Amino acid sequence: MRRALTVLQGPRLLLRAPAASMQAQVLDYHLRNQAFFAPWDPAYPADFFEAEGVAQRLAQGLTSFAEGRAYRFWLSLASAPERLIGSIHFSQVARGPFQNTLLGYSLDEQAQGQGLMNEGLRLAIAEMFSPRVQLHRIQAAVQPQNRPSLAVLRRLGFASQGLSPRYLFINGAWRDHEVFALLNPAWPDEQAP
């Protein structure tokens, strides 16, 4: 089993793995951004905005992180660690011949346009490609209308893999998504997983 670092720090950001102590912070983050995220997120489960549901998801996230099945990092400014401003999630980690994960991310409405997600993703991707986790490929899917998210992926070197029609059911309809991938540049082509 491969273990990622549970805390990553950049020039402005602190990225932390899930912890039970984050319950109030996570709930606050989701509540303040509920309307902002609505056009891009699938429907939330019934308990999404309840303390008990948040606590359960944090516990599951911590277990998945420890077992190497998924890695969620919660973002805060290093200067204000008590307030969460974003999330980066590597889900559905596949080993064997695939060595792949799916990437999702979100950033507080008030933190947009400052390069914070770019900084956070650089840190998190470096960890996923490090010898501690050693993935070969990261895949992300974005609605074509989400221009800021598309720009972030392109700045990070993700290559378009094409359009996936009716990819996810979001905001009452099946939405097309452009699929992107980033390959680990340190993984030689002839190296077996």
UniProtKB/TrEMBL annotation:
It is an enzyme of class 2 (transferase). Residues 13-185 form the N-acetyltransferase domain. Signal peptide: none annotated. InterPro entries: Acyl_CoA_acyltransferase, GNAT_dom, N-acetyltransferase. It comes from the Bacteria. The keyword Oxidoreductase does not apply. GO terms for cellular component: cytoplasm. Pfam families: Acetyltransf_3 (PF13302). GO terms for molecular function: protein-N-terminal-alanine acetyltransferase activity. The keyword Transferase applies. Its EC number is 2.3.1.267. PANTHER family: [RIBOSOMAL PROTEIN US5]-ALANINE N-ACETYLTRANSFERASE, GNAT FAMILY, PUTATIVE (AFU_ORTHOLOGUE AFUA_3G00765)-RELATED-RELATED. Belongs to the acetyltransferase family. RimJ subfamily. This is Ribosomal-protein-alanine N-acetyltransferase. It comes from Roseateles oligotrophus.
